[in-house]
């Protein structure tokens, strides 16, 4: 099992206290690319998905509700990790 798979499993069990760096790594592993940064908001997109992924870095952690929001399109579109 890869590090990203372990991280995904950890996040699925508990989306609290996820480091921003780990979250960025996971978002990019699912094929999203950084579209823009607006203040503390890092906006990621994927061409075939209309929903944007927004992640904020708050003292090195990603906000829990944004982690949950990221998981929605992953599950809806059956996205897989790209290693």
Explain this structure.
The protein is α+β, with helices and mostly antiparallel strands and 83 residues long. It has one domain: Metal Transport, Frataxin, Chain A, CATH 3.30.920. 41% of the residues lie in helices and 29% in strands. The protein contains 3 helices and 4 strands, in the order H-H-E-E-E-E-H. The chain has helices at 3-13, 20-29, 64-76; strands at 33-38, 41-46, 49-58, 61-62. A 4-stranded antiparallel β-sheet has the order 1-2-3-4. A hairpin with a 2-residue loop joins strand 2 and strand 3. It starts with a helix and ends in a 7-residue tail after the last helix. The model has no long low-confidence stretch (mean pLDDT 94).
Please give a handful of descriptors for the protein shown.
83 residues; 4 strands; 4-stranded antiparallel beta sheet; 3 helices; Metal Transport, Frataxin, Chain A; alpha+beta
Q: What portion of residues is helical?
A: 40-55%
Architecture per CATH nomenclature, i.e. the level-2 architecture? 2-Layer Sandwich
Instruction: Point out poorly predicted stretches.
Output: none
Radius of gyration: 12 Å
What average pLDDT do the residues reach? 94
**Number of E-type strands:** 4
User: Main β-sheet: number of strands, strand sense, barrel status?
Assistant: 4 strands, antiparallel
Count of separate structural domains: 1
Physical arrangement of strands within the biggest beta sheet: 1-2-3-4
Reading off the top of the CATH hierarchy, the class is best stated as: Alpha Beta
- Could you say which structural class the secondary elements and strand pairing correspond to? alpha+beta
Number of helical regions:
3
The arrangement of helices and strands along the chain is: HHEEEEH
Strand content: 25-35%
CATH topology category name = Metal Transport, Frataxin, Chain A
Based on Cα principal axes, name the global outline.
Answer: globular
CATH homology-level superfamily: Hypothetical protein
Distance between the termini: 11 Å
């Amino acid at each position: 099992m890869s590090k990203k798979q372990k991280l995904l499993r950890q996040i699925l069990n508990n989306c609290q206290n996820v480091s921003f760096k780990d979250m960025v790594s996971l978002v990019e592993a699912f094929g999203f690319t950084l579209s823009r940064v607006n203040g503390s908001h890092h906006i990621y997109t994927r061409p075939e998905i209309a929903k944007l992924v927004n992640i904020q870095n708050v003292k090195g952690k990603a906000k829990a509700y944004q982690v949950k929001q990221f998981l929605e399109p992953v599950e809806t579109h059956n996205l897989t990790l790209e290693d």
